[in-house]
Amino acid sequence: MSFIKEFKEFALKGNVMDLAVGVIIGGAFGKIVTSLVDNLLMPIVSIFLNGVNFKDKFTVLSFNNTTDFKTLEEAKAAGVNVLAWGAFLQSVLDFVIIAFCIFLLVKFMNRLTRKKEEAPAPAELTTQEKLLIEIRDAIKSK
């Protein structure tokens, strides 16, 4: 089997295509959640924390540089080593929200799958139905 034919067979399998679609949708979903956190949730959280913007929270790690920087961009532009803990906190919040949304989606899909699998149990046959089945089977056997 040629290399190209093997690759084509591998790439066209259902699982690989499903994975590719999942990765693309996941990337778009990540952008939506990041926008949700940045533009909707964090401003509300900032109100409760007296206007704190987490993206600008950082700690300067350079011991010989005593200049105070107001924003993270200023510190990075100056070439100072910084610990950008605010951006990390923002990413953790993004992750938690994405994980929660995926959990809800999987839970919903499992519930749909479970409903499909749970077919109603056949009702108990009445005496008359049992007798009719026996008669039918007896006629078939003759």
TrEMBL record:
Give me the Gene Ontology terms describing cellular component.
plasma membrane
The transmembrane segments are 12-33, 82-106
* Subcellular localization(s) per the UniProt record: Cell membrane
Q: How does it associate, per the subunit comment?
A: Homopentamer.
PANTHER family membership: LARGE-CONDUCTANCE MECHANOSENSITIVE CHANNEL (PTHR30266:SF2), MECHANOSENSITIVE CHANNEL MSCL (PTHR30266)
Q: NCBIfam families in the record, alphabetically?
A: mscL, PRK00567.1-4, PRK13952.1
Would you tell me the protein name for this molecule? Large-conductance mechanosensitive channel
The organism named in the record is Chitinophaga jiangningensis
Q: What's the source species' lineage?
A: Bacteria, Pseudomonadati, Bacteroidota, Chitinophagia, Chitinophagales
